[in-house]
Amino acid sequence: MSNVEKPWGGRFSEPTNKLVEAFTASLPYDRRLYAHDIEGSMAHCRMLSRVGVISKQEEKRILGGLKEIRKDFEEGRLGFSVDLEDIHMAVERALIEKIGDLGAKLHAGRSRNDQVALDCRLYLRSEIVEILVLLDLLKSCLVSLAKREVDTVMPGYTHLQKAQPILLSHYLLAFWEMLDRDEGRLIDCFGRLNALPLGSAALAGTGLKTDRPYVARLLRFSRLTKNSVDAVSDRDFVAEFIFAAAMTMMHMSRMCEDLVIWSSGEFGFVEISDAFATGSSIMPQKKNPDVAELIRGKTGRVYGDLMCILTVMKGLPMCYDRDMQEDKEALFDAVDTVKGCLAVLTAMLENVNFDRKRMREEAEKGFSTATDVAEYLVQKGVPFRESHRIVGELVGYCIDKGKTFRDITLKELRSFYDGFDRRFYEVISVDYSIAARKHEGGTAKEAVLRRIREIEKAEGRLQP
Question: 96, 214, 353, 426: least CB-packed within 10 angstroms?
Fold first, then answer.
């Protein structure tokens, strides 16, 4: 296509270099916006007819052409050359080919600047809804597992060292809380991006008669953008979404890290279904947690997408600059990655089995109830720092003698503090330790069940 044939070609006397056409084209990846571009164009067409820029008959023909183009896309009959640059020009060219010069009237009162801003908002709005559904499925899976494992005791860790015994259900619900915050961030992002930019044109708005509130109603936007310069230069919503996606990936990655470790022979806490594992090309005995590892690895991709958009936007002069074309691949990659990971992680978690006996055995090791002993002494009036010292010395003594708390005699205990009594042997139980933490947010079974009831009662949170 020569420059004369391009929509912007009147100013130019030479055709675009083929290298430049290939270098600047976004059509190979932004073609996935076709449905949103057509949806926005149809609303714009109706508005042009409403305000008298085009006639009702012209509106009918343009809308008919756009519907045919959408069907051609859906059925794979429409192919484009990179010299069409982007999806907006591709749709416009297809429309002109279908209905003649009338198709050229559609662009009145808008620019590709506000058009792409609209398309991205429409696209991301629909994707956020789909991601919220996937998030809810993963959250529901965690609640189901928590109910199933409400009596399963496991060692809790800090610094990857045994710390205190907890319920596996409490551990699982920790990730529910993380994902719930992720859901909240996406809902907030949806609310901020749900503003109509169309009508901002290139940067100053349009001198033609327009009806932006009407277009907003057609496209189900809750409000209008208030500044045309900001509307075409804003990609905050892209960065905000990718940040929310990166947080979600980080939370999934942490879960997967534990699954990788727990499935090892050294831990043996979990068995991942064969359907969600792979083998080795050389070692016949291997069963590798590749799905969990790949989710962990793909987290870095989304972090890269976030760095990409922040770097693209950080030094741009106002208003629109072609650099902003680079937002699409980062956005699309973040969407695809987080959706794929949410779906496969949920399916994998629905097919895991925990070794309850092994987890309990490990929870009873490593003096994991030492804090309970310190708190037992506090209840006797010993200042906590003093009780901490006493129990620390007791642990050191046990390690030196090769003993556990259960092996220590009352006489030995009283050599560290003469107020020790037989209740010591009660408080060192992992069951006692867990049951004692029945406060809100604690790991006791009654606290966990209370939280599950709260979650189930609140299910069905209003979605955007």
Answer: 353
Residues 126 and 253 in one domain: yes
pLDDT at 336 over 60: yes
Kindly state the helix (H) or strand (E) to which residue 272 belongs, with its residue range. strand 270-272
Predicted confidence (pLDDT) at residue 462 exceeds the cutoff of 50: no
Do the Cβ atoms of 36 and 73 come closer than 8 Å? no
Amino acid letter for position 284: P
Residue range 444-462: mean pLDDT, rounded: 88
The verdict on 372 and 408 lying in the same domain is: yes
The residue segments making up the domain with residue 416 are 364-458
- The enclosing domain of 59 has a CATH number of 1.10.275.10
Tell me if 210 is assigned to some domain: no
pLDDT for 218 equals 98
What contacts 360, CB < 8 A, 6 or more positions away? 152, 153, 154, 430
* Residue 159 annotated to the active site: yes
Task: Kindly report the backbone phi and psi dihedral angles of residue 285, in degrees, each rounded to the nearest multiple of 5, phi listed first.
Answer: -85, -10
Average pLDDT over residues 138-157: 98
Has residue 164 got a pLDDT over 90? yes
Is a pLDDT exceeding 50 seen at residue 4? Answer: no
Active-site annotation holds for 222: no
Residue labelled with tokens 């015994």: 165
Among 326, 355, 384, the domain boundary falls at 355
What total of structural domains would you count in the chain?
3
H/E stretch holding 420: none
211 found inside a domain: no
